UniProtKB/TrEMBL annotation:
It holds the Pfam family Peptidase_M18. GO terms for molecular function: aminopeptidase activity; metallopeptidase activity; zinc ion binding. The keyword Transmembrane helix does not apply. Keywords: Aminopeptidase, Hydrolase, Metal-binding, Metalloprotease, Protease, Zinc. NCBIfam families: PRK02256.1. InterPro entries: Peptidase_M18 (IPR001948), Peptidase_M18_dom2 (IPR023358). This is M18 family aminopeptidase. It is an enzyme of class 3 (hydrolase). One of its GO terms (cellular component) is cytoplasm. It comes from Oceanotoga teriensis. GO terms for biological process: proteolysis. Its cofactor is Zn(2+). Gene3D superfamilies: Aminopeptidase i, Domain 2 (2.30.250.10), Zn peptidases (3.40.630.10).
């Protein structure tokens, strides 16, 4: 008996992405990804960039087709929900027969302005903040930060703010205490008081060349600068969404340039790969779609999060355009559809081996990660995909030469986490998690493999074109 051949036949063997893909092809794709990431510092900007790409590739808003009163194969439709979430679909056949959907989230861990943020203390103007999502607070101290978002002024107008992404702009900093004075012996998770994470805004008094004393004159100077540039007053900040993000452009990592560092890989890396997969797919089996949602990092709540299911009313409108009995057809459409919950996973880190089960931890450079369940401890809060779904997805990928691996989010009872998967499974869709493995997830600068980025794009494309 040839035991080597038997081993090859029976055992699970994974292939490195660089054994399959040409570096230049991967790198060219990565360069376009960098452009997306360097623009998409917030969920609003990610949706705006996605809309532009979709329209450049023939997608039209839902309203266009409603005015036309008809829908046919090949039509490309998108709908944007409150500038923070998006659903886009290419039509192939009857929607009631099911849709292949890849769903990602475009929000990322960050720091937000509080509703009344501006303060002055010892002639230093600062902004009070509240962190968003799971962060290690110490990682955000004494690094360059940018400010992005919108302000709704007293006239009801939307004022866009973007400071720090241009090299001519100033950046912002949240100061840390020097080690000489820091004798804090608390656990690192407790050492940073979030109420002290105040953003430095300025130190010059509005009347620095006058002897006249004015209360909070540095804060007043900051308000005056904002008023001159954006036409706002302090009360307008109450109706604002101002997000503090790292001022760190996407960069190649390593002497071989095989890795890429960026803010917000989680989960914009899956959003971009699914977006480009939809645009470049030759839809030949059934309708395929992407879903980009907000607020995953804080539980998927709100009217722009995954729990909102704004895509279902859109599907109903599309079914109506296909002359279906909507009340019945929408149930069929949902039950016959599948969603890849495209979220990132924690790559095995050789510096922190004890955090992983090495036999079930995804590795860099081994392709897209298929995650049957997430959750915590006894699989609490997870979708836990059915075996049939796992089987069909891996069959599609194997038949299309896609490199894939399985993964968990850390050791049992140590790790855990959630994705949008369970909210769609509750509606009746078949759902499984599938995304890119990262190092340093939720840090201001996360690390991904360029090869995994590209292979994930190919995996989503194969899924959209061939799953049925």
């Amino acid at each position: 008996m040839d035991y080597k051949e038997l081993s090859k036949k029976l055992t699970l063997n994974r292939k490195n992405v660089w054994e399959k893909n040409d570096f230049k092809t991967v790198d060219d794709y990565t360069e376009n990804y960098k452009k997306f990431m360097d623009y998409s510092k917030t969920e609003r900007k990610a949706i705006k960039y996605s809309k532009k790409l979709l329209e450049e590739n023939g997608y039209k808003p839902l309203e266009f087709f409603e005015k036309e009163g008809k829908l046919k194969d090949g039509d490309k439709v998108y709908y944007i929900n409150r500038d923070k979430s998006l659903f886009a679909i290419e039509i192939k056949g009857k929607i009631k027969n099911g849709v292949n959907i890849v769903g990602s989230h475009v929000d990322a861990p960050r720091i937000d302005f509080k509703p009344e943020p501006l303060i002055e203390d010892t002639e230093i103007a600062m902004a009070k903040t509240h962190y968003y999502g799971g962060i290690k607070k110490y990682q955000w101290l004494n690094i360059p930060l940018e400010l992005h978002g919108v302000i709704i002024n007293s006239k009801g107008e939307t004022v866009e703010v973007s400071i720090g992404d241009d090299l001519k702009d100033p950046v912002f900093v949240i100061s840390d205490l020097l080690p000489h004075l820091d004798r804090n012996k608390k656990a690192i998770s407790e050492a940073i008081d979030p109420e002290k994470m105040n953003l430095l805004l300025g130190t010059i008094s509005i009347n620095y060349d006058s002897e006249e004393k004015i209360k909070d004159s540095v804060k007043l100077n900051i308000l005056n600068i904002l008023n001159e540039k954006y036409g706002i007053i302090e009360e307008d900040l109450i109706s604002a969404e101002l997000e503090i993000v790292p001022s760190l452009p996407s960069r190649d990592v390593g002497l071989d340039r095989s890795l890429i560092a960026a803010y917000g890989h989680d989960d914009r890396i899956c959003a971009y790969t699914s977006l480009t997969a939809l645009i470049n797919s030759k839809i030949n089996s059934r309708s395929s779609a992407i879903l980009l949602v907000d607020k995953e990092e804080i539980g998927s709540d709100g009217n722009t999060g995954a729990k909102n299911h704004f895509w279902i009313p859109m599907l109903k409108k599309l079914l109506k355009l296909q002359n279906e009995d909507v009340a019945i057809a929408i149930e069929d459409a949902i039950n016959n559809s599948i969603l890849l919950s495209s979220d990132v996973s924690a790559a095995f880190d050789p510096n922190y081996k004890d955090a992983h089960d090495i036999n079930n931890a995804p590795k860099l450079n081994y392709g897209i990660v298929l995650t049957k369940y997430t959750g915590a401890r006894g699989k609490a809060g997870t979708n836990d995909a059915n075996a049939e779904v796992v089987g069909k997805v891996r069959k599609v990928w194997n038949e299309n030469n896609i490199l894939w691996q399985t993964g968990e989010l850390g050791r049992t009872d140590l790790g855990g986490g959630g994705t949008i998967a369970k909210f769609f499974a509750e509606q009746g869709l078949d759902v499984i998690d599938a995304g890119v493995a990262l190092l340093g997830m939720h840090a201001p600068y996360e690390i991904a493999s360029k090869g995994d980025l590209y292979e994930t794009y190919l995996a989503y494309k194969a899924f959209m074109e061939n799953y049925k």
